[in-house]
C-alpha cells in the first residue's frame, strides 16, 4: 500500500480527522478508532507517524514511543472513562489479524463482563462506525490528559 492511499498516513499528515487527534509528536499520532464496540467506547489508536507496515520493520525508538504513549492513553482512559482495565493489542500481517498496512496499537478501555474477547475472537459486526462528532468529543476529553 502506498502512503498516499493510507488512512493513517493522511491523519498523521494532518490531511483529515485533525480535530480527532488526541496527541502527536515526531514519532506517533493518537486518535480514537473509527470503529468501536458500544461497550468499549473510546477505543484508541496509537499510530506511527512514519508509514511502517508491521512490527518487523519498526525502529526501536518508534517502538518505545508507541509503548510509552500507549501507557499514557491507558491511564487517561482509566481517569476519564472510568475504565476498570485496559487491553492493548497490535496485529501483524493478515494471518495475525492486521487489516491496515500501517503499524498501530489498539488501546481499549475494559469493563467487567464487557465480553470483549467473547467466543473465538472479536467479530467484525460488533463494531460500529463512530460518528465524527463523537470521535472529536472523545479526543477532546482525552487530550486534557496529555501535556
Describe it.
The protein is of the alpha+beta class and 147 residues long. The protein contains three helices and seven strands. The protein has helices spanning 7-12, 60-81, 132-143, and strands at 23-24, 28-32, 35-36, 44-48, 85-89, 104-110, 128-129. The chain is globular. The termini are far apart. The mean pLDDT is 90.
- Poorly predicted parts: none
State the helical fraction: 25-40%
Principal-axis shape equals globular
Distance between the termini: 34 Å
User: What is the count of DSSP helices, taking H or I runs of 4+ residues?
Assistant: 3
Specify Rg, calculated over alpha carbons.
Answer: 14 Å
Strand content: 15-25%
Count of extended strands? 7
**Biggest pleated-sheet summary:** 5 strands, antiparallel
pLDDT averaged residue by residue: 90
Strand order of the largest sheet: 1-2-4-6-5
The structural class is: alpha+beta
Task: Summarize the helix and strand pattern as letters.
Answer: HEEEEHEEEH
Summarize the SSE layout with pairings.
Elements: H1 7-12, E1 23-24, E2 28-32, E3 35-36, E4 44-48, H2 60-81, E5 85-89, E6 104-110, E7 128-129, H3 132-143
Antiparallel strand pairs: 1-2, 2-4, 3-7, 4-6, 5-6
Concise description?
It is built from 3 helices and 7 strands. With 147 residues, the chain is α+β, with helices and mostly antiparallel strands. The strands form 2 sheets. It has a 5-stranded antiparallel β-sheet with strand order 1-2-4-6-5. A two-stranded antiparallel sheet has the order 3-7.
Amino acid at each position: 500500500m502506498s502512503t498516499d492511499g493510507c488512512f493513517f498516513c493522511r491523519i498523521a499528515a494532518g490531511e483529515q480527522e485533525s480535530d480527532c487527534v488526541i496527541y502527536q509528536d515526531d514519532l506517533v499520532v493518537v486518535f480514537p478508532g473509527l470503529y468501536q464496540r458500544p461497550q468499549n467506547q473510546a477505543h484508541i489508536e496509537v499510530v506511527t507517524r512514519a508509514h511502517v507496515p508491521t512490527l518487523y520493520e519498526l525502529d526501536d525508538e518508534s517502538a518505545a514511543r508507541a509503548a510509552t504513549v500507549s501507557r499514557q492513553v491507558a491511564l487517561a482512559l482509566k481517569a476519564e472513562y472510568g475504565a476498570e482495565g485496559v487491553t492493548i493489542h497490535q496485529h501483524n500481517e493478515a494471518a495475525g489479524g492486521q487489516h491496515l498496512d500501517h503499524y498501530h496499537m489498539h488501546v481499549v478501555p475494559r469493563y467487567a463482563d464487557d465480553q470483549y474477547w467473547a467466543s473465538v475472537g472479536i467479530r467484525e459486526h460488533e463494531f460500529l462506525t463512530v460518528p465524527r462528532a463523537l470521535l472529536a468529543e472523545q479526543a477532546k476529553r482525552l487530550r486534557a490528559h496529555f501535556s
